[in-house]
Every structure is written in C-alpha cells, then in structure tokens.
Amino acid sequence: MEQPATAPPQAGALAGSATRTRRRVDILPFLLILPTVTILLAIQVYPAIYTVALSFQERKPAGWEFVGLRNFEKLLNSSSFWESAGHTIIFLVGYVGLTLTLGFFIALLLNRRTKLSGLYITVLFIPWILADIIVGVVFRLLVLPD
After folding, report:
1. Which of 7, 45, 54, 102 makes the best surface tag, with the fewest CB within 10 Å?
2. CA nearest to 124, candidates 106, 143, 141, 111
3. Which candidate, 71, 54, 75, 73, places its Cα nearest to that of 63?
C-alpha cells in the first residue's frame, strides 16, 4: 500500500523556531554574568574613570576648576615624582625577582621526595599556622570580659 503523500515541512519554518530557541540559549550565559559585570563596573571601572576625570581638574574654594594637562605637567616636572618612581621600579623588580626565585626554589624542594621533604613542608606551613593561631588568641583576648 502506498503511503499518502504529505507535504514536506518548509525549511524556513523549522529553521526559524530553531534559531529563536538557539538565541534564548545563547543569551543565558550573558544574563547570568550580568550581576558580576555590573558590580565590577560599579566598584572598578567607574572609580577609574572618575579618577581620570578628576586628574584634569583642580580643587578651588569655589569648587572644581578644569585645568587640562597642567596637573600632569606639574607631576612630570617634579623631581620627587621621578625619584619615587625610580624607587618603585627598583622595589618592584627586586621583589618580583626575589619572589620568583624563592618560589621556584621552594617548588623544587617540595617536588622532590627526599628524607627531608616532610621537614620542608613543615617549615613552609609553620608561618601560616602561626598566623591563624595568633589571630585566634588576639580575638579571644578581645572578647574576654576581663
């Protein structure tokens, strides 16, 4: 027996519903991260933009006055700025270099299985444990009625 002929579904009708469903699924991740993005904009981006806007102004008794790049000119002509920037760069390079070197050395020590690896781990974790103990003791002293 022959099957009755039916019209094939139109390609546009199926594609349209699939596209609408697909769009709803694609927008969901953005809706889920929207609160986080809003908070980040409020506590990081807005203050940064506001700070840049304030850097082009000067505080006067009557209010804020737009001075343009004059503040930056004063800053770049200041010898104390360049001295402190130099100290900051030296400190940054020294700190990063020392931290990376010590961290790499500690990682190598902890990666090896030797007789002293337990001692290395103990010595590494003692400052963290002591810090928690000190915080607990200080908090206990704060809440004591004496």
Report:
1. 7
2. 106
3. 54
* Exposed e or buried b per residue across 48-82, where buried means at least 16 C-beta atoms within 10 angstroms of its C-beta: eeeeeeeeeeeeeeeeeeeeeeeeeeeeeeeeeee
**Residue 76 confidence (pLDDT) above 80:** yes
| Residue 120 CB-density burial (10 A; 0-12 exposed, 13-18 middle, 19+ buried) | middle
Q: Give CA separation, 106 vs 54, 109, 125, 143, in Å.
A: 45, 5, 12, 38
**Confidence tier at 46 by pLDDT (50, 70, 90):** very high
**Residue 40 is encoded by which pair of tokens?**
């980040």
Q: How far apart are CA 43 and CA 70, in angstroms?
A: 28
